[in-house]
Amino acid sequence: MKTSKLTLGSLVVSLVSAVAAGEHQESRVLTWPALAEQKLIRSGDVVPAQGQEWQCLRIQNESSGTKTFPILLLKGLSPTTSQYAIQGQVRYEGVIGASYLEMWTVLEDGGRYFTRTLGASGPLGAFTGTSTWRPFALPFDLNKARPPQVSLEINLVLRGPGVVEIGPLQLVNLSPDGRSRAWWSDQTAGWVGGGLGALIGLAMALAGVLAGRDAARPVVMGILAAVFAVGLAGLSGGGVAAFSSQPYAVCYPLLLLGTIATVLAVFLRFKLSRHWRAVELRKMQAMDAA
């Protein structure tokens, strides 16, 4: 029994470690307060984001002409795929002309290549006028070349007066079709975790209610077996996700819910088995006494 517990514990620890590694490889979130602490921000002010829980970078151009604001210089990055992107949210007020974010990819041999949000619409759309929070993306393709390290320069170009606020940045590796390789988004992860967690909680509550009824023992055992199976499926899925470099939002809910469901099912089955044996023993003693 002790060996089994040790093996299960080692498995969980290894999977959690793989999650941390997978998060680093697949997706990296860059928050402005953290970047400010590292003194990496080159322009703008870090302020609370309007209508959001996070903080953003606010940049204002008070001149009437075009002005380039250097934002970040990220050195020594090692993409795990040949395609990657900087993604995030942006809002702006009173922006004149087709303003944009740009990302320069600088290779070790000195080569420089840029991506700009100068599209007509969508995440690659330019910034004009006023907008509430909307997504943006700065993708880049190394054409299957994966140098050991690259540097990224991120700038904001404003054609005239205006205010731009940029939310937390996310550096993601992309699949060959230009999409994130994640199985689902952060928002979907919340739905997956909340939904499965609620179902597991209801199932365990039902098992607890029925546990005191002798006739319901097969039903209780069936519920526990189903929860245990869900737990194993979660651990298996989380393991596959971790070792295939899925991001934290994919691995963590699967591993967490899988661990909780498996442990609860095993623990409750053990406790109920002892309880039922004690009940049967008391019945036999009562019959002998009679």
Word description of this protein:
- With 290 residues, the protein is an alpha+beta fold.
- It folds into 2 domains: 2-21 and 183-289; 32-167, Sandwich (Jelly Rolls), CATH 2.60.120.260.
- It has helices at residues 2-26, 32-37, 186-210, 217-243, 248-289; strands at residues 27-30, 45-48, 55-61, 67-77, 83-107, 112-116, 127-141, 150-158, 162-166, 169-173.
- Strands 1, 2, 3, 4, 5, 6, 7, 8, 9 and 10 form a 10-stranded antiparallel sheet that branches.
- A hairpin with a 6-residue loop joins strand 2 and strand 3.
- Helix 3 packs antiparallel against helix 4 and helix 3 (186-210) runs parallel beside helix 5.
- The longest helix is centred in the C-terminal third of the chain and has 42 residues, at 248-289.
- 30% of the residues are buried.
